[in-house]
Each structure stands twice: as structure tokens, then as C-alpha cells.
């Protein structure tokens, strides 16, 4: 049975492929299918943004059609950010909305035959590192050195830093856990769909659409929400100090 599966696996493909070699300071690097998919997703988002900007320049008092869609998206994202970040929402709403749309579009791109960019760990790690840097910068900006050290030593007093190594490791683990959670969930769906089409291609006519609805739409939307919610929670905690009312 195992040999039969291996023999049938010629059509299975969920890997990243090197497409175009580029000489970069004497080293050959490659533009991969993952880069192409990221570019396609970004162009779609950019195109939507340009059309929305043009339409809203001539916005009507009673919205309808495309204007309704744009205003609904902006309103929903604004409520999500303000409900989690409170007074800090105006400062971060643009960034959170941007990564929400990018991750969601990347996750659901598998429906249109693309390899989801978030199934590439390089993509999710980059997003997680941005979140990590935002946490560090805002913590340094809004919290004193004494308060940061107290939190590092928590739950024990600052003069007894027994828990400091564990708390430092937990801080460093934030980008790793954020990136791996999103990457693993999206990649698992990509692998399963590749197996379905590769091993069952002769009967995979219409019913895989149900799997696409789950892995690309349902799971993709959940993972997008989780990533953004954790980002907002971590950044809000970094912005909050003892002196805040």
C-alpha cells in the first residue's frame, strides 16, 4: 500500500519552487512561486485600495454598491481594533487593518489556485518580527526601566530575579509562536489539498470545494483574526504602564 501511494505521488506538489535565478552581490538567489504569489496578493490589495480611493473621492451621502463594501470593511476593522486596543487604537488601526487584509487575502488565495504566501515560513516570520519590534519599541517608550525590570522578575520582587530567565525566554518566544501558529495551520491545509488533488485527482471534481471552504475560508479567517488579536494584545500591554489611569 505504501509503495502504491509513493507511485501515485508524482502529481502531489505543495513545495516552494525556484523559478528565476537572480545574481545578488555574487550570490545566486531565486524568485520563487511564493514571491510571485505575494506579489499577486499585494497587487490585488493595491488595486482595491486605488479603486476605493477614487470612489470615495466622489462618495455619496447615502452609500450603495462598492462604497457600501468599502465603508463596511473600514467600520468592521475599526471596531475590532478599538474594542481590543482602546485609547491606543487610533495609533495602530492602519497597521492592524493592513496586516489583517494581507493575511486574509494570502490565506484564501488557495481558492484561486495560488500557493498561499502564509504557507511560507519566511512570510509569517517577517510579520511576527514586525510585531515583536513594535512590542519592544512601545515598551521602551511607555514603560520605565524599573517597571520593565519588575515585569521581567514577576511574580517575585525585582530584587529576587529567579524568574527573569524564564520571562525573557517567553518574550523572545513571541515571534516564534506567532509565526509558527499561522504558518503551520495554513501549510497543513495546503498539504492536505495537495494530497487530495495529487492522489485523488481522478475523482476530485467538485467535492474538494467543501475542503477549500474549510481550509481556505474558515480556517484562514480564524488564523487571521488570531494573529491580529495577539498582535493587538501584546502591543497594548507594551503601551500600558503603572502611571496610566
Automatic annotation (TrEMBL):
Gene3D superfamilies: ATP synthase, F0 complex, subunit A (1.20.120.220). It is found in: Cell membrane; Membrane. It is a multi-pass membrane protein. GO terms for cellular component: plasma membrane; proton-transporting ATP synthase complex. Its main location: membrane. Key component of the proton channel; it plays a direct role in the translocation of protons across the membrane. PANTHER family: ATP SYNTHASE SUBUNIT A, CHLOROPLASTIC. This is ATP synthase subunit a. It comes from Agathobacter ruminis.
Amino acid at each position: 500500500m505504501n509503495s502504491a501511494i509513493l507511485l501515485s505521488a508524482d502529481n502531489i506538489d505543495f513545495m516552494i519552487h525556484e523559478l528565476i535565478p537572480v545574481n545578488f552581490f555574487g550570490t545566486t538567489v531565486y524568485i520563487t512561486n511564493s514571491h510571485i504569489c505575494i506579489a499577486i496578493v499585494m497587487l490585488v490589495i493595491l488595486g482595491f485600495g486605488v479603486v476605493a480611493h477614487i470612489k470615495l473621492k466622489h462618495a455619496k451621502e447615502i452609500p450603495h454598491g462598492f462604497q457600501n463594501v468599502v465603508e463596511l470593511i473600514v467600520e468592521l476593522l475599526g471596531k475590532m481594533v478599538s474594542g481590543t486596543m482602546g485609547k491606543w487604537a487610533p495609533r495602530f488601526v492602519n497597521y492592524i487593518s493592513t496586516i489583517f487584509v494581507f493575511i486574509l487575502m494570502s490565506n484564501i488565495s488557495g481558492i484561486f489556485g495560488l500557493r498561499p504566501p502564509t504557507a511560507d515560513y519566511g512570510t509569517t516570520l517577517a510579520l511576527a518580527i514586525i510585531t515583536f519590534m513594535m512590542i519592544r519599541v512601545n515598551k521602551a517608550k511607555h514603560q520605565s526601566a524599573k517597571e520593565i525590570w519588575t515585569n521581567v522578575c514577576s511574580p517575585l520582587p525585582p530584587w529576587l530575579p529567579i524568574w527573569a530567565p524564564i520571562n525573557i525566554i517567553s518574550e523572545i518566544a513571541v515571534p516564534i509562536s506567532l509565526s509558527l501558529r499561522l504558518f503551520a495551520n495554513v501549510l497543513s491545509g495546503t498539504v492536505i489539498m495537495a494530497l487530495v488533488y495529487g492522489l485523488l485527482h481522478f475523482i476530485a471534481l467538485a467535492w474538494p470545494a467543501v475542503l477549500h471552504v474549510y481550509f481556505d475560508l474558515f480556517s484562514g479567517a480564524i488564523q487571521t483574526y488570531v494573529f491580529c488579536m495577539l498582535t493587538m494584545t501584546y502591543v497594548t500591554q507594551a503601551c500600558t504602564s503603572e502611571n496610566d489611569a
